[in-house]
């Protein structure tokens, strides 16, 4: 592990890593207010346009399987710069797409390219920190990352008032190219040559897949992925639920989505304040239980009440707890010290994005004229996550090895 950065360098590191790890939120949240317009403009069904969300998430998952292990061999910085250059280029291509099917394909490639930001921000942090310090750093990182879900739909909703939906992807292209420059000038390599995996690229990938021999690790990453599935059940359905079912305006939905983004950011910061006093595993079990109970209430409200203020409150509580869970589960996994942090982070990202990508179209296929599918999907994901996590022992050492 490299020496701990000074406070000034830590703050810059939190900012830049928080920004590059926001590839997912930027790619998803920024265009959410435009989904209804894109559905009309591309003459497609809502479930087909929602599939563009899934394609991006699946790309984010598979891309991490490439950039994660390669960073264990070649270092963190070069894969990041290449990834964000391609991200910017593909974003420009999306802006000139006139087909829903081409949109889906390009969104998949966009996810592949942008995956390096998510996987390597976690790997860089674990190169520098461990234990409660890593939990505290991830709390700060998640809080910065949480800013983007707050501002992205607001910016997207504002842009839709004045420009076509294509303008959102032109903005994403600009962000991608700016990040290439920021990485080049402002981030140092954190993985020394002597700590990199020697041999061909295949060896790095093989070391990553060896993690799957550990059954407890597999249960842990699936439990974590199900939390992401719950979040993306909300994300994919939210614009249709609040704009179509509850008849909110685009701007009203954007502000509501921003409020929930604040909830995620606040929730992400809480585990850092509790680190060292309560174990990450203990906190996770408590929050998984409370999130599951909240999702049951949301489901019951869909069956019997359909009350907008109550839905707003329950959704806010749910996503705030999602923020806590993402910090806690990420810290637990990245503290496993299995000596290939890029591959470890890639497996985490694979589970999160793949399960999130699967849940998004499922919610859309179940209908958009009620929020019951969204509530049931969240409840199912959280119930399964709680069940899986409860089978895992708390001691970190029990995860090590195969």
From TrEMBL:
InterPro entries: Efflux_drug-R_Bcr/CmlA, MFS, MFS_dom, MFS_trans_sf, Sugar_transporter_CS. The keyword Transmembrane helix applies. The chain crosses the membrane at residues 12-28, 48-67, 79-98, 137-160, 166-187, 217-235, 255-274, 286-305, 311-334, 371-389. Residues 13-398 form the Major facilitator superfamily (MFS) profile domain. It comes from the Bacteria. GO terms for biological process: xenobiotic detoxification by transmembrane export across the plasma membrane. PROSITE patterns: MFS, SUGAR_TRANSPORT_1. It is found in: Cell membrane. One of its GO terms (molecular function) is xenobiotic transmembrane transporter activity. GO terms for cellular component: plasma membrane. It is a multi-pass membrane protein. Pfam families: MFS_1. Keywords: Cell membrane, Membrane, Transmembrane, Transmembrane helix, Transport. Belongs to the major facilitator superfamily. Bcr/CmlA family. This is Bcr/CflA family efflux transporter. It comes from Lentilactobacillus parabuchneri.
């Amino acid at each position: 592990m490299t020496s701990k950065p000074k406070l000034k360098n830590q703050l810059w590191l939190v900012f830049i890593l928080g920004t590059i790890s926001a590839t997912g939120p930027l790619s998803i949240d920024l265009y959410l207010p435009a989904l209804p317009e894109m559905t009309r403009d591309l003459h497609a069904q809502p479930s087909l346009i929602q599939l563009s969300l899934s394609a991006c998430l699946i790309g984010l998952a598979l891309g991490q399987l490439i950039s994660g292990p390669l960073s264990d061999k070649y270092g963190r910085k070069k894969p990041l710069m290449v990834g964000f250059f391609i991200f910017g280029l593909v974003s420009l291509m999306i802006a000139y797409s006139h087909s829903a099917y081409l949109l889906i394909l390009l969104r998949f490639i966009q996810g592949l390219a942008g995956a390096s930001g998510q996987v390597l921000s976690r790997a860089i942090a674990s190169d520098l920190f461990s234990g409660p310090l890593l939990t505290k750093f991830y709390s700060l990182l998640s809080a910065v990352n949480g800013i983007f879900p707050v501002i992205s739909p607001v910016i997207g909703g504002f842009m839709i008032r004045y420009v076509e939906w294509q303008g959102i992807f032109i903005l994403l292209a600009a962000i991608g190219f700016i990040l290439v420059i920021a990485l080049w000038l402002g981030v140092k390599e954190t993985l020394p040559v002597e700590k990199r995996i020697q041999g061909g690229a295949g060896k790095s990938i093989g070391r990553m897949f060896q993690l799957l021999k550990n059954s407890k690790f597999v249960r842990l990453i699936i439990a974590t992925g199900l939390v992401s599935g719950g979040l993306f059940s909300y994300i994919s359905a939210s614009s249709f639920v609040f704009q179509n079912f509850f008849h909110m305006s685009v701007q009203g939905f954007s502000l509501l989505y921003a409020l929930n983004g604040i909830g995620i950011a606040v929730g992400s910061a809480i585990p850092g304040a509790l680190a060292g006093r309560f174990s990450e595993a203990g906190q996770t079990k408590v929050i998984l239980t409370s999130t599951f109970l909240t999702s049951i209430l949301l489901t019951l409200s869909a069956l019997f009440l359909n009350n907008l203020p109550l839905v707003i409150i329950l959704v806010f509580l749910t996503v705030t707890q999602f923020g806590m869970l993402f910090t806690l589960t990420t810290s637990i996994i990245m503290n496993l010290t299995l000596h290939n942090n890029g591959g470890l982070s890639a497996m985490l990202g694979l589970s999160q994005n793949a399960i999130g990508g699967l849940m998004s179209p499922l919610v859309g296929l179940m209908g958009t004229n009620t929020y019951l599918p969204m509530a049931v999907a969240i409840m199912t994901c959280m119930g399964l996550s709680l069940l899986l996590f409860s089978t895992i022992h708390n001691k970190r050492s029990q995860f090590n090895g195969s």
